[in-house]
Amino acid sequence: MQLDFKARELTIKLVYYGPALSGKTTNLQSIHQLVAGDVAGRLMTLETKDDRTLFFDLLPLTLTSEKGLSVRLKLFTVPGQVIHNATRRLVLQGADGVAFIADSQRSETKSNASSFVNLRQNLSENGIDPAAMPLVIQFNKRDLDDIRTDEEIDALAARGKEPVFKAVALRGVGVLETLLGLMDVTWRHLEASHQLEEKFGVRADPLLAELRHHLGVGREAAR
């Protein structure tokens, strides 16, 4: 979290993490296409010749609190390929919350697990306690064959503490709900750590309601 007192701007960094081709970039592209109004800035991508994201995507979303404080969300993705682990670790620096994008295909189970372990390792190497990092999990590609069933995913969600979402990012299904869920757990973590409401009069519910409004998603979708 970065706070600019002079500009009255609070910046929150959210990182989309996961194995190669799980749909991290597609999530950001879908958010950029679906967001209402003039909230989203320019979506920037850096790609390799094989059309995979090499470094990161940056999608700034700016909201204004009821007390006039601008809350700027910066959304990043990390490269999924193992050879770019140093870049993954760099992008994770200063992260306030993480969305782990898993591939629902059974064939990608090991890749998901390996990437999740890698996430925890890179957080630790950045001096961040993995257990304290606000985290949501999205199971993407729900429209493909041979995927983990809804019942399997629900069972996994019941065993963990992280909110779990199901998505088809190419169609925009579940991507906004994932972002809202991530912002919810991240903001409440920041509030507990920094007393944002007491210091700046920024309350979680009105801010999240504004984000839902701009994203065009009802309250029930964020749960």
Describe this structure in words.
This protein is α/β, with parallel strands linked by helices. The chain has one domain (2-222): P-loop containing nucleotide triphosphate hydrolases (Rossmann fold, 3-Layer(aba) Sandwich), CATH 3.40.50. Helix content is 37%, strand content 19%. The chain is built from 7 helices and 7 strands, in the order ββαββαβαβαβααα. Strands 1, 2, 3, 4, 5, 6 and 7 form a 7-stranded mixed β-sheet that branches. It is globular, with a radius of gyration of 17 Å. Mean pLDDT is 88; it is low at 219-223.
SSE layout and pairing:
Elements (H helix, E strand, L loop, with lengths): L1 E3 L4 E9 L6 H11 L23 E7 L5 E8 L7 H8 L4 E7 L5 H17 L9 E6 L9 H10 L4 E3 L8 H20 L1 H5 L3 H12 L8
Parallel strand pairs: 2-4, 2-5, 5-6, 6-7
Antiparallel strand pairs: 1-2, 3-4
Task: List the keywords.
7-stranded mixed sheet, 37% helix, alpha/beta, Rossmann fold
Provide the gyration radius in Å: 17 Å
Output mean pLDDT.
88
Structural class: alpha/beta
Query: Percent range for helical residues?
Result: 25-40%
Can you say what the CATH homologous superfamily is?
A: P-loop containing nucleotide triphosphate hydrolases
User: If you consult CATH, what is the topology?
Assistant: Rossmann fold
CATH architecture classification: 3-Layer(aba) Sandwich
Report the β-strand fraction as a percent range: 15-25%
Low-pLDDT ranges:
219-223
Question: How many structural domains?
Answer: 1
Largest sheet: 7 strands, mixed
Short précis:
The chain is built from seven helices and seven strands.
